[in-house]
Amino acid sequence: MTFKKLSMKKLAAAAIVLTFFYACGSGPQEAKAPISVSVNPQIGASQAHSAVATGGDGTQKPAAAAPAKDGKALLAGSDCRACHSDRDKLVGPAYAEVAKKYKEKDIPALAKKIIDGGSGVWGPIPMAPHAALSTEDAEAMVKYILTIK
């Protein structure tokens, strides 16, 4: 088949497919700067950062745990929005649909799915793996996604 015989529709479809795969992470890998995150206000911004806190009577007691990573900021700094939105299905499911289907007990499995990629749960189109993402970051993202209603 020669180039002249290809219709514009076929060329446009091929360009869309290539753009999709590139946006979902199967294109050339580039070095990404570390994502700067802030404290998620939904989890608690007033937690102490030090290992020991001093009470009002001068006694020392263990401080609260370090603040959790901000899943919303991690999502904003990732390529996830190329395929997902909060309420509308794009290439992948809407985050609100994911939140309806899964519970807190599913966080480790969903974080692994984000890191490893895969297909079959929401249809035949595969989710690209995000191997450079840490388990902690993926879990923070999932925790945020599960709050979207």
Helix/strand layout:
Blueprint: H1 8-26, E1 52-54, E2 60-62, H2 71-76, H3 95-101, H4 107-116, H5 135-145
Antiparallel strand pairs: 1-2
Helix pairs in contact: 4-5
Tell me what the structure shows:
- With 149 residues, the protein is mainly alpha-helical.
- The protein has a domain at 69-145: Cytochrome c-like domain (Cytochrome Bc1 Complex, Chain D, domain 2, Orthogonal Bundle), CATH 1.10.760.
- Helices cover 36% and strands 4% of the residues.
- Strands 1-2 form a two-stranded antiparallel sheet.
- The longest helix has 19 residues, at 8-26.
- The chain starts with 7 loop residues before the first helix and ends with a helix.
Rounded Rg: 20 Å
- The end-to-end span amounts to 49 Å
The total strand number stands at: 2
Overall pLDDT, averaged?
74
Give the low-pLDDT segments. 35-53, 63-67
What is the oligomer described by this structure?
A: single chain
